[in-house]
Each structure stands twice: as structure tokens, then as C-alpha cells.
Amino acid sequence: MNYEKTKVWGILLRLYHWSLVLSIITLVTTGFYINAPWTNTTLEGSVSFPMASMRYWHFLAGYLFTAAILVRIFLFFFGNRQERIWDFLPVTPRNIKSLFTTLRYYSYVSDEHDERPGHNTMAGISYILTIVVAVFQLIAGFYLLYPESATWQGIGNTIFGSQQDGRFIHHLLMWYFIFFAFAHVYIVIWNELKSPEGLISSMVNGKKFKHKNV
Amino acid sequence: MKDQAANIAFSSGLSRRGFLKSCTLAAAALGLSEAMIPKLVAAAETAQRPTVIWLHFQECTGCTETLLRGSHPDIGRLILDIISLDYHETVMVPSGHQAEKSLHDSVAKNEGKFVLVVEGAIPTADNGIYCKIAGRTAMDILADVGPKAAAIIAMGTCASFGGIQAASPNPTGAKGVQDLISGVPIINLSGCPPNPVTFLGTVLHYLTFKRLPNTDQMGRPLFAYGRRIHDHCERRAHFDEGRFAEEFGDFGHRNGYCLYKVGCKGPETFSNCPAARFNDVDVWPVSVGHGCVGCTEPNFWDSMTPFYERLPQVSIPGTGIVTDADSAGKKILGVAAAGAAIHAAVGIGKSVIKKGTDKA
What we know:
The complex is a heterodimer of chains A (214) and B (360). In chain A, helix 1 (11-35) runs antiparallel to helix 2, helix 2 packs across helix 4 and helix 4 (121-145) runs antiparallel to helix 6 (163-194). A two-stranded antiparallel ribbon of chain A has the order 1-2. Chain A starts with a strand and ends with a strand. Chain A is elongated. Chain A has helices at 11-35, 50-78, 93-106, 121-145, 150-159, 163-194, 199-205, and strands at residues 3-7, 207-211. Chain A has 214 residues and is mainly α. Chain B is an alpha/beta fold. Chain B has 3 domains: 5-225, 3-Layer(aba) Sandwich (Rossmann fold), CATH 3.40.50.700; 229-310, Irregular (Cytochrome-c3 Hydrogenase, Chain A, domain 2), CATH 4.10.480; 321-359. Chain B has 15 helices and 11 strands. In chain B, helix 2 (16-30) packs across helix 9. Chain B starts with a helix and ends with a helix. The chains are: A mainly alpha (214), B alpha/beta (360). The A-B interface holds A 35-37, 39-44, 46, 48-52, 108, 147-148, 150, 153-154, 157, 161-165, 167-168, 171-172, 175, 178-179, 182-183, 186, 190, 193-194 and B 216-218, 226-228, 239-244, 246, 251-252, 255, 260-261, 265, 267-270, 294, 297-300, 303-304, 310-312, 314, 325-326, 329, 332-333, 336-337, 340, 343-344, 346-347, 350.
């Protein structure tokens, strides 16, 4: 079989991806701490601010997360061919076909692999869903971070109702990201084992290996 | 003597000192500079007393009690003296038909000029039959009196957002005033009960500036509900430095550490409790060792319970399972991991079989 290297992901998309990874790991870890601090102390007058520090890192990672999401939304419309939303939105016949091919391939029904440079439609849908959830997550985050701001109060109260409801939804959506991270890593490794197209390294060097005749 | 607050107040035994102290308290609660105190005093002394009609619906009278039974009698007396209270079921002398007559007469005489205070939620289910006074439903009375008021003060969480009556499943369809009346300025003094200083401040603001104070997005005055309890809490340093009470009565609790881990809702509750405090002996729930329960927030019976946990419970539809978010999350993640393991096993099994058939 002849493979050739094809350039798939631009530098901005790869930066987005790893910023998101870094920020999600930081946010989930510090978020769990902020919700239920697992340390406790009776030390007083020491130079130690565990809760204040955890919140600081949480907010910092929150800004990184926001920046990453904004970059991805920008690339949905202004990225290269693979990065644009039309490449995997299930509205064209090509993409709808890809959805069913991928479903059959993932459930071991068929060995037909939808070998395309960018996302298959199934992956694409889950990424779009993730971005939508992320937008709600970061709105909830800023609503909690700036509770006294009239702007965030207006937005947050309309969407979530109250601070406590916002906090609850922020916590539940965190679990979405945990599930997503788990499923994403599993499926990427599974794909890497099934077809040697360099899926994992493509997120580092931006290149995939594809059959020459495709 | 003219019908002015100070005359009434002094003739009823309030000392000049007590009067000035109460005005100063209200100025501090409103966040006004000391230069404004004489203006508040002048307004309280000379302004024509506004007619106030006080309606009780689905409530416990706790909001009235908080005014009447303050250990600092001057505040309650001043409140009752700077307003002309024409109708208030708890404190008025008339009863029966006479009471109804005074409500009717006062509304007719002061139409468009009186201030309406509403205490308690208004049930709307089944045409509002769950709360009736003198044969009329609360809905009827509010729809009749509300639009004729110059301004409405919703006193307490029930009148503001429905309160405990509106807790799920809300059998009586209880609602707050703002959901039923439009076209009249409404201010929500939420809380269970709100601080009497907040009420005094709102009334004095209305007397001095001829309008209701600025509010947040939920219609609560910013001078009292502009900041979260957490940000003015005396235990905040313990929070930042990671010292927590793990349970009531433990070392941390006895040493006044942060109540975050025993479910304090201070971080999500807007109120002036830590600054204004209660009963004039400088206490409030957190200062005496109990976490905030978030009584000033909408739907607080639904979203703030369990009171001793940080977050509401998750109920999984169709199963009757009610659990906390994290144990639900862990269980669902476990199911996902099991699913992935089965998926992987099928893949490995298939490739083993394929290798076998290829060889054969």
C-alpha cells in the first residue's frame, strides 16, 4: 500500500487543541478542589492560600479555555478546508453518508473506512456539540466569576436563573467534558490501531498519511 | 401639629437621639455619605408621611415580626411613624367590615399616591382559591389594589419570588408580585426575613429622593443586595487559607473556620447580612456558626437544598434515583468505561478470529 503525507491541520488548530487539553485538565482538577476542598488545616498565619491559589489557577485556565474556544469558532468559518464547519456538518450528502459509514465502521459491522483528510461526520458532530457545551460552560464561568457585574447578571440570570443554578449547571457540564475526554481518547487510540494514518501525531505535526489513490 | 413623621415619632416617645441614630443607620445601609444624613433626617422630619397599605397573603408574618420585634425598638417605631400605615392586618385596630372599609377608603382616597407593601406569595392555581381574605382571593385583591399604587415594595422572599410556597411542586401555583403586576415600580426586598434596616433604607430613600433605589437584575436594591455574603463574610480569610469546619462541633467549627464544607450558601447569595447584621447585637447566621441557606435568592427552597451540601441533588428521570452530581457522574463514567472495554474486547476478538481464518 502506498501512503502519502498530506497537510491537514494548521498551527492555530493544533494550538487550540493542546490549549484545550491543558485548560480542561487544570479546570477539572481545580474545579473539584473548589467544589469540595480535599485539604484542610489548622495552621494560621502561614503563607499558604490553597483555596485562593486554586481559584486563581481555575480562573487563569478559564481564560485559556475561553481563548481556545474562540479560536475554534473562528476556524469553523475561516480555517482551512478540513477545519471549516461545512466539512463535517451533516447537511451535505457526502457528510450524511460519512456519518453512517463511520457508525458501521465503529460498531464492527463493516470494514469500510471513510478515509477523508479532516473529521468524519460523527467526530464532527461531537466536536460541534462540545463547542456548544463549552460556550455555555464559559458563560456560566464568567457569571460566577463576576456575580456583581450587571452585564453578566443579565446574561446569567436569563440563561441559568440564579447564581446557585449557574453553579449547579457549571458543575454538571464539567462532567460532560470528563466523558468527552474519555470517549475522545478511547476512539482516537482505537482508530490509531485500526488504520495507520497517524491520527495522533497529526495533532502535533499537522500531517496525516492517506492512501495515494484516494 | 402637622401629619409629619417627626411629630408623630416624638409624641409617641421616640427620643431625638434614637431618631437620629436610626436615620444614621439607614444612611449607612444605603451607602450614603455622612453629608447626606441631614437630608435623610430632614426628609423623615418634614416630608408628608406616605400612605402605606400593607397586604398579607401566603406568609408567616415573619417579615412583619422582624420589624416589630427588633431589639432596637427605635427602628420599628420609626418605620411605623414615618409612614402612615392605613391597613396592616397584624397591627391595625379595626377588624372585619371596618378593616375592609379602611382598605377600601384608603385606596380610593390615595389612588396613585400610596405605597403598597406586599408580604407573602400569591397563589394562582385554581383561580387563586388557596388564599382568601374577606371572601376575595389574594389575586383579586392584588389585581385591584396593586395597579393603583405609586410603588410596590415586595417584602420578603415570598412576595419577591414565591418563597417556600413556590417550592416544587408548588401545589398552589404561588408567585411573586413582579410576576402578576406590571406598570408600577416594584422593588424586591427578598430575604426570610429581610433586614429591617433594608426596609427602613428603602422607605427613607423613597422619602428623600422621591423614587425607589437602584436595583440589580432581580429588582433588589443594590445598597442591600449588591454584593454576595461571601465577599463580606468575617470567615472569608479561613476560606482563602483553606481552613474549614468539616462537621458541626468539630475543631474547625469550634474555632470559627469557614462553613463552606458544611453547605454554606454565602458564595451564591446576595445580601447585606454580614454588614447590617440582625437584632442590633451584631449577629447573623454565619457569625453564630450556621451556614447561610441562601434565603434571598429565587427558588431557594429548590436550588439551595440540601442546606448542608454545596449543590442540589440530581434526580435521574424515570428511575426515582436522587443522588449528588458527583456520584451520578462517577457511575455514568463507570458505565462508559465498561462500554469502551466491551467495544475494545469485541475488536480484539474479531481480529483474533480474522487471523485464525486467514491462516486456515
